[in-house]
Amino acid sequence: MFLPMVHPEIFLPPCDHTRETVNIIGRCMNDLSPVMPYLNAVMSRAAYQGSAHILRFRFEGHPVTLQPHEIAVGGFADGDEAVAMLTRVQQLINETWDRRQEITPSTLERRRLQALEVYKLLPRTNCGACGETTCFVFANKLAAGKVGIDLCAPICQDDALADARGQLMAMLELAA
Ligand code: SF4
């Protein structure tokens, strides 16, 4: 087994102990670096920093950050929930490592998009066809991966916007 044991440490945000969010860190003896390119290939919109050996992704709605000897997961109501999720992340790591022969590893370094850079490529007509009140609201959701570009009919269908569409598609392809 790639990762047989993780030692959990539960903590509250240091600046505000009144907050109800619980985070957890799992300390590992093994170096997690070798499994990161495989997880980077299979986890949607993962953000990989190869030189720093850091991988960030969302798993079951929670933010996960892997470093060589550490798994950090955030956003839990209590410690039991946090420990259960840490176990599932450990399982994910082991299952991914076991399947590595079937996976083409990726060292692609995606980055988080800024809403403004997405907005600049949208039609900016606020036509509402996407269901949002403004193009900027849509840009925020698109940058965060909460909606797809297909909801904006003008950018997808207007030949006059082909250049912007191409740039936007390329940007989204590399989005974390
Ligand atoms: S459909 Fe496109 S152009 Fe219309 S409001 Fe939405 S993002 Fe803007």
Give a verbal description of the structure.
This protein is α+β, with helices and mostly antiparallel strands and 176 residues long. The chain folds into two domains: 96 residues, TATA-Binding Protein, CATH 3.30.310; 59 residues, Electron transport complex subunit B, putative Fe-S cluster (3-methyladenine DNA Glycosylase II, Chain A, domain 3), CATH 1.10.15.40. It contains six helices and six strands, in the order E-E-H-E-E-E-E-H-H-H-H-H. The protein has a six-stranded antiparallel beta sheet with strand order 1-2-6-5-4-3, covered by helices on one side. A hairpin with a 2-residue loop joins strand 4 and strand 5. The chain is elongated. The model has no long low-confidence stretch (mean pLDDT 93). Bound molecules: iron/sulfur cluster (SF4).
Short description:
This protein is an alpha+beta fold and 176 residues long. It has helices spanning 36-42, 79-98, 115-119, 135-143, 153-157, 162-173, and strands spanning 7-11, 22-27, 47-49, 54-59, 62-67, 70-76.
In order across it, which strands form the biggest sheet?
1-2-6-5-4-3
What is the CATH third-level topology name of the largest domain? TATA-Binding Protein
Largest beta-sheet characterization: 6 strands, antiparallel
Low-confidence sequence ranges: none
Helix content class: 25-40%
Q: Give the domain tally.
A: 2
Count of extended strands: 6
- Rg from C-alpha positions? 19 Å
Quote the distance from N terminus to C terminus.
29 Å
Tertiary shape: elongated
> How many helical stretches?
6
Bound molecules: iron/sulfur cluster
